Amino acid sequence: MVVVAYATFFTIVYWSFVDGYAESVVQSYARYIVAPVRIARDAWFVDPDPENHLTDLGFASSLPGVFQVRSATARIQFPALLQSAYVTQGVEVRGVDPEGEVRLSRIPGKLAEGRWLAGPGEVVLGKELARRIDARVGEQVVLSAGSLAGPQALGLKVVGLASTGILAVDETAVIIGLDDARRLTGVPTATTIDLDVPRGAEAAVARRVQALLPDGVTAREVWELVGPIKTDVEANKAFAHVMAAIIYIFAALAVTTTVFVSVMERTRELGVVAALGLAPRRLGLLVTLEALMACALGWLIGIGAGYAGAWVLSRYNILGPVFAAVSASTPSAGLSDEVYGAVRAVYALYSGMVIACAVALSALLPGRRAARLRPAEAMRSE
Description:
Layout: H1 2-32, E1 37-41, H2 42-46, E2 71-83, E3 88-96, H3 98-104, E4 111-114, E5 122-126, H4 127-133, E6 140-147, E7 150-162, H5 167-170, E8 174-177, H6 178-185, E9 192-196, H7 202-210, E10 217-221, H8 228-265, H9 267-275, H10 280-315, H11 320-329, H12 346-371, H13 375-380
Parallel strand pairs: 3-8, 5-7
Antiparallel strand pairs: 1-9, 1-10, 2-3, 2-6, 2-9, 4-7, 5-8, 6-7
Helix pairs in contact: 1-8, 1-10, 1-12, 8-12, 10-12
């Protein structure tokens, strides 16, 4: 029973981690790189040039009223040249509403130096990018961009350096105020409206929001925006299924071996029962039912313990510090510092499949052995 409970518990927690890790990687991408749900013109998704900006933001006022939409924030993304006193480098700039970005992104809470944006004329840089161009907090940099009205340049004061542990942010982040972005690009509105929604609700919210959008404008959930990360996540899941199959085989063998040894140890006891007149077939049935009841009870205990463990992993960032330490030592891994588990009903089915195989082996084999016992020989066994 203990082995069955442990196998069930391990199966549920294993899949909670596998699914939760995949979701956490996508969430990290949403909170650092894109957004949980992004609204833009179809043309912008094909060619993210500022000239494909949203022509009208009238629909944005209705978005906060959509179920599970916590906030809607305008952004402008555009390419530019970043120039310090020593180095000039091509960058991708993000123009944001400073207050709205605090609700939408994790970057404002990951500043290693300085502070977050407070007004126009300011910029926050990724820490590694700032090191590369030799720019420090308090110094001036210049952004040059090709606006809709012609080339533009703007001097900005570095007020903060972001250190997230994610290479794609620390080496590339250039974040300025929305008004400064509009001045540099000539875009009067925004290139995207990005939504803050609860974890796991992205697809449902994107469908609800779509009904409010004008023609040619689309809401996409983060899973549609992750690009190559999607392939990596799916490959990791495929590998997880292979590992799970191996674990299932060993779990089934462990349960089978435990029950079989239990029957072997009680050979004399079963021989006495047979000598008292219990028919061999009934003795085999008795052993089989005993194994079934023990496995069923162990499975129920494992279900309760497994889902309790999965719930804890889903509510508390227990694994986050571990992955944060790994990310600090290998920043190219792009691991998130927030890793939660998942809780899904299908995990009970996964564990049930494992236990069903184990039960079939552990109930039938010992049952057949018990049915073939010869009382005289069994009673003499040690």
